[in-house]
Amino acid sequence: MGKAYMKSKAKKKSIVIVLEIVIALSIICTFNIVYDKGNGDGRLEIQNKTDIKKPSLSGSWDENDVAYIHIFADNWSATELPWIQNRTGSWSDPHVIENVTIDSTGRPYGILIENSNDYFIIQNCKVYNTGSGSFDAGIKLENTNNGTLTNNN
Asked: Where are its TM segments located (predicted)?
């Protein structure tokens, strides 16, 4: 009886250890830790809001000027539109879309950015009359990183 009890106890202990490892790994994988790729040493850098350049005033664009905006695969530089401030797309010099009003009647989105890793800011934009489907949105981001949305309707 002693040997069987010891084997059972060892088996239970092994199962508990494996479960603890699986839980620990799943917790670690759930957190999205972002490292600054530019410095190469893996240290996390905190963004200081005072270091960000203020966007230049671009005027105000109404729904008669802009039907929709679609950025695909970092093609920011290919869009020669006055309401998109094409910059380097880096952390310190992001692209900016601001002060735009879009009537997206008949479209599933007003602004769509997909497959982009450039840094960008969308601020003070108003999008209305978008589609009512479950995948429709005023501002839609698909497979996109490094974007900041501020004060949009």
From this structure: 15-35
**CB 98, CB 125: distance < 8 Å:** yes
User: Residues 60-97: pLDDT tens digits?
Assistant: 555 566 778 888 887 876 667 777 888 888 899 998 98
Are the C-beta atoms of 87 and 115 separated by less than 8 Å? no
Beta-bridge mates of residue 109: 137
CA–CA separation, 96 and 55 (whole Å):
7
Number of residues that this document lists for the chain: 153
First-to-final CA distance of the chain: 72
What is this structure's pTM? 0.57
Nearest to 100 by CA among 59, 131, 138: 59
pLDDT in tens, 2-18: 666 667 777 888 888 88
- Nearest Cα to 89, choosing from 68, 62, 58, 113? 113
The one-letter code for the residue type at 105 is T
Question: So where are the chain's domains?
Answer: 49-150
